[in-house]
Structures are given as C-alpha cells and as structure tokens.
Amino acid sequence: MAKNSLIQVRVEDSLKQAADSLFSDLGMDTPTAMRIFLRQSILRNGLPFEVQNFSPNAETIEAIQDVKLNRNMSRTFDSIEELMEDLNA
Predict the structure, then answer these.
(1) For residues 28 and 37, is the Cβ–Cβ distance under 8 A?
(2) Taking the model in full, what pTM does it have?
C-alpha cells in the first residue's frame, strides 16, 4: 500500500470557501482538486497554467500616468528607428 503524506496550507477563509464551492460545482472536493494540481504540475514540469499579475504595482501605474500626461498617445510610427528617436527625445 502506498504511504500517504499530509500537506497543510493556510489560506483565508473566503478563499477556501470560494474554492470549495467551485470544486463542488465541478463534482470534486478540494483535496481531489489539489491532487490533480500536483499531478499536472509534475506532468508539465511546472505550473499547469500561466501566472499573471492583473494588478500593476505603484511604479508601473506611475509610469503609465507619466506617459499619458507627457506623450501624444495617438501617434503612430513608421519604423523602429522613428519610435526610438521619439522615446529618446
């Protein structure tokens, strides 16, 4: 018989409840979903999905605002050289 190991993870109550509800709707419990995640991670030799940050940090927000305030956002360029000239101006 295979030996089992226990994995414990602390998460916010709201995250656990939302995950439990989602997995229940998919016909499984959270431990089963976690086993699927672990198996898929091993099969793919990495995370089984793309990780994205949907919230830009303060530095990125400031840079976006700076560009919007200081540049004509509707301008187009005919070449990389033209774009680089504008960026370095």
Answers:
(1) no
(2) 0.56
